[in-house]
């Protein structure tokens, strides 16, 4: 009898401790940031005309192969991992490469549910080489509202990948 009471007490204590640990883990993970990396090849031109010189490479990039100074625009989709209202403004990091001395500009956009701009910010890279464009937004976003990235890609420029951080 004594053995069973001690066993029941220790089992109850173990279950209580496990429940407390689980609740704590789930409560703190609700505030953890969500980070998703997308390949540049997810980006696409908004029309066939603008996409005529774009190539999606086997390494996951999108590249403007135009021989002229044509600037192509691409839209990069984002699937929101956090569908609740944000507790801090989201940010994007877009990895771009220029093979010529040109300027690549990207815009990170949060839209409202009707498709109008809720918040927008941009960064540019001028020169030859690879750069990461860190673009924060300043406003909190509502759950269910979309994000997107738009970039102007001059000839010889590419998007390697892009990272979205939301909380």
CATH topology name of the largest domain: Jelly Rolls
Helix content: 10-25%
Q: How would the global form be characterised?
A: elongated
Mean pLDDT across all amino acids:
82
Distance between the termini: 52 Å
Radius of gyration: 23 Å
Give the biggest sheet: 8 strands, antiparallel
Order of helices and strands: HEEEEEEEE
| Tally of alpha and pi helices | 1
Signal peptide: 1-27
Keywords: Signal
Protein name: DUF4352 domain-containing protein
Describe this structure in words.
It is a single chain. With 167 residues, the protein is α+β, with helices and mostly antiparallel strands. It has one helix and eight strands; from the N terminus they run αββββββββ. The protein has one helix spanning 2-29; strands spanning 34-39, 54-56, 62-64, 72-77, 91-111, 117-136, 147-153, 157-166. Strands 1, 2, 3, 4, 5, 6, 7 and 8 form an eight-stranded antiparallel β-sheet that branches. A hairpin with a 5-residue loop joins β5 and β6 (117-136). The chain starts with a helix and ends with a strand.
Task: Summarize the SSE layout with pairings.
Layout: H1 2-29, E1 34-39, E2 54-56, E3 62-64, E4 72-77, E5 91-111, E6 117-136, E7 147-153, E8 157-166
Antiparallel strand pairs: 1-8, 2-3, 3-8, 4-7, 5-6, 5-7, 5-8
